[in-house]
Amino acid sequence: MRKYGIKADKRLGQHFLVDQKPLLSMITAAELSPEDEVMEIGPGLGILTLQLCANAKRVVTVEKDRQLIPVLENMTRDFKNICILEEDVLKLNMENVSENLFQGRFKVIANLPYYITSPIIMKIIECRRWISLAVLMVQREVAQRLVAHPGTKDYGILSIAVQMYADVEMVSIIDQDSFLPPPKVKSAVVKIMLRQNPRVELEDESMFFKVVEAAFGERRKTLKNSLKRRLCFPGITSDTLDRVLDETGIEPMRRGETLSIEEYVKLTKALKKYMID
């Protein structure tokens, strides 16, 4: 950082990893082989990038911060298997990247900026056609939400959205002093093993997530009240909701955070029968 006159940019949520131990846990969790192709998001100063280049067939790094590009180019100058993209990953067309820079499905490994963690995770989920696995370093609280079970305080929309399309496991907890500058909170490494098909068969994905969002819209309210206040489907009245909850055997006085993915699918299917096209 002194050599290149670089300071961490707060606007980009930069906390540069300076500890080797978390890197090794990420590399191990990713189960990298010499035939693997990898996308790294937010390579920063390239400490993880070097490990990826040494262990994978091909590495594509996506870095938004222009001041870091010369550093990455210099750090990786001895490797021929790297491509550095100066891009915003949220605007990146993954299909084009897959077709032009990779030979098949690739893995994503990244130390994610805290302020855009959830959007990046959702983009990875949406692009599961091209991505086989993701190993991510995220804020510990986000990691807890990703692995949360129904009935716990961390269980929410993100938990359901990710667990519907992936198996998730917590790999390790990382202390603040592993970064420069140190963040105010601990981090965690999570492993997301993507599924091509949803965990439970969905008839209408859009409706399913609208039901989930309505149920979590007011966490302190009962499921019945949250749905009545927030669901806006043609043909679905208050009486219809009562009937559907009775048909599915879901107790109206439960709260949204106690329902499993399977129960939300059952609820959505039952509601769909009463919708007016």
Question: Can you characterise this structure?
Answer:
By secondary structure, the protein is α/β, with parallel strands linked by helices. It has two domains: 10-194, Rossmann fold; 205-272, Helicase, Ruva Protein, domain 3. It is 38% helix and 19% strand. The strands form two sheets. The protein has a seven-stranded mixed sheet with strand order 4-3-2-5-6-9-7, with helices on both faces. Strands 1-8 form a two-stranded antiparallel sheet. Strand 5 (106-111), helix 5 (117-126) and strand 6 (131-139) form a beta-alpha-beta unit. Helix 8 (205-216) crosses helix 9. The chain starts with 15 loop residues before the first strand and ends in a 5-residue tail after the last helix.
CATH topology of the largest domain: Rossmann fold
Q: Encode the helix/strand succession as letters.
A: EHEHEHEHEHEHHEEEHHHH
Main sheet: strand order: 4-3-2-5-6-9-7
Return the domain count: 2
Proportion of residues in extended strands:
15-25%
CATH homologous superfamily heading of the largest domain: Vaccinia Virus protein VP39
CATH architectural arrangement of the largest domain = 3-Layer(aba) Sandwich
* CATH top level label of the largest domain: Alpha Beta
